[in-house]
TrEMBL record:
It comes from Geodermatophilus amargosae. It comes from the Bacteria. This is Nitrite reductase (NADH) small subunit. Residues 40-134 form the Rieske domain. Residues 1-32 are annotated as: Disordered. Keywords: 2Fe-2S, Iron, Iron-sulfur, Metal-binding. InterPro entries: Rieske_2Fe-2S, Rieske_2Fe-2S_sf.
């Protein structure tokens, strides 16, 4: 009996989730490019649905980028400092990101925990010409 045929996915389901993917290190429109400012266009705005987060790699750094329903955008480290949970899958409100694994919260303002489990790194993020640009 032969082994079942398995196919390997050729591309990540979320742009920029693998190091070296096309969304990594794209020059910011209107600037000289990422090396000088360490600014990376990680995705198109529509790649992150309103009210959700997605994980990307910016300059070799894994980041979670969020679009809140109030129109704001936020970026944090991708892994939770508590036990490595996928912060991009967390729940959000205007003030706090909640990790999906153990439900600790982290403030957008400075990354501090609402439950005393450390701090997430918060990265500056903005929209530039329809692209989400993260400074790492
Ligand atoms: S891994 Fe995030 S709260 Fe535990």
């Amino acid at each position: 009996m032969s082994a079942p045929h398995l196919e390997v996915a050729e591309a990540p389901t979320t742009p920029g989730t693998e190091l070296g993917s096309p969304a990594t290190g794209v020059a910011v429109p209107g600037t000289a490019g990422p090396p000088a400012g360490r600014a990376y266009a990680v995705a198109r705005l529509e790649d992150v649905p309103l009210g959700e987060g997605r994980a990307f790699v910016a300059g070799g750094v894994q980041v979670a980028v969020f679009r809140l329903r109030d129109g704001s955008v936020h970026a944090t480290q991708a892994a939770c400092p508590h036990a490595g949970g996928p912060l991009a899958d967390g729940q959000t409100d205007p003030d706090v990101l909640v990790c999906p694994l153990h439900l600790y919260g982290f403030r957008w303002s400075d990354g501090s925990s609402t439950g005393g489990v450390g701090r997430v790194r918060v990265y500056p993020v903005r929209e530039v010409d329809g692209m989400l640009v993260v400074d790492v």
